[in-house]
Amino acid sequence: MSTADETPADSDQTVVELSSGAPATDLHHALLELAAVAAEADANPPFSEQTLVELHRAAEQGTQQSPLRIAYAWTEKSTDSRLLAGAGVVVEGDGEVPDVLELVVRPNCRQRGIGAALVDELSTSVLAADSGRSRRAWAHGEHDAAGRLAQRYGWTPVRELWRMRLTTLDEAPAPELPDSVTLRGFRPGEDDQAWLAANAAAFVDHPEQGRLTLEDLHARMEEDWFDPEGFLLAFEGDQLLGFHWTKVQEPGLGEVYVVGVVPAAQGRGLGRSLTLAGIEHLHRAGHEAIMLYVDADNTAAVKLYKRLGFTKWDADTMYAPADDHSTEPA
């Protein structure tokens, strides 16, 4: 296979292939290498965490029952080698959750029509307009090219997910939990079911977070970044009231991964206190900056994060066909 920094010549031919289910080992490795190159160039990962979880799960289980449908764009070289120039990954939903596309093109292969070729291939198969399925696409980062490609195919923005960042950690206030509430780290194998129930209750209206299963939880627990001590649970007696699951993106950069409070405990300021407790944990672990994702139209959460010192850093945009807004995420 060609090296990652090799620039295709104008005479090279691009061939698009489509696969369903678990990708073969060489394709899986090539896809992860492509994603890493693009993330380094764009300062944005091209795939969401759920897509990466599905890719890793498919690679480990080797099952054709995987919800993955992937279009690969190979640039054929004259030396009988080939370069993975781009890929479109679709994670199929289940009727309630739409099929979701994420697209990546190698930085030195852009402006060659590869993105359009991938969308064309997927539009005649898994993303066909007459499939009767709800369709969405994520564009990670504020890239004009993604907007132009979406407009070309008649897709319009339906959701904006902000990335916010905090760098003044020394000024963050200390968490103030009620005396009756205790905070401790997650205990794998002991807290799994209790957390799943609390998460489902806290995110009952969220089409992604609220639908996490035990398998989804365990898949995340197997990731290199998982740290049970950074998965903070708030208890009142034996009742789990809320949680703050932190994550380390990279050395020096922590993440407010997910904060949830069960409905019965809302209105007590636990969300703010749990957020601050997680920030404090990450700061003590040596991380000098904190980031988080939040829906732009979640005004209450955005207001809270701004009060804590977070500012908008970047944004991801979800697109949908202009005539298909039936199951927009909350």
UniProtKB/TrEMBL annotation:
Species classification: Bacteria, Bacillati, Actinomycetota, Actinomycetes, Micrococcales
GO molecular function: mycothiol synthase activity
Pfam families: Acetyltransf_1
Annotated protein name in UniProt: Mycothiol acetyltransferase
Record flagged with keyword Chaperone: no
Task of the protein: Catalyzes the transfer of acetyl from acetyl-CoA to desacetylmycothiol (Cys-GlcN-Ins) to form mycothiol.
Record has Lipid biosynthesis as a keyword: no
Oligomeric form and interacting partners: Monomer.
UniProtKB keywords: Acyltransferase, Repeat, Transferase
Alphabetical list of HAMAP family matching this protein: MshD (MF_01698)
Enzymatic class: transferase
Reactions accelerated catalytically: 1D-myo-inositol 2-(L-cysteinylamino)-2-deoxy-alpha-D-glucopyranoside + acetyl-CoA = mycothiol + CoA + H(+)
Binding positions (acetyl-CoA 2): 259-261, 266-272, 298-303
Family, per entry: Belongs to the acetyltransferase family. MshD subfamily.
Binding site for 1D-myo-inositol 2-(L-cysteinylamino)-2-deoxy-alpha-D-glucopyranoside: 49, 208, 247, 255, 293
Residues annotated as binding acetyl-CoA 1: 103-105
Organism superkingdom: Bacteria
Enzyme Commission identifier(s): 2.3.1.189
N-acetyltransferase domain mapped to chain residues: 181-330
SUPFAM superfamilies: Acyl-CoA N-acyltransferases (Nat)
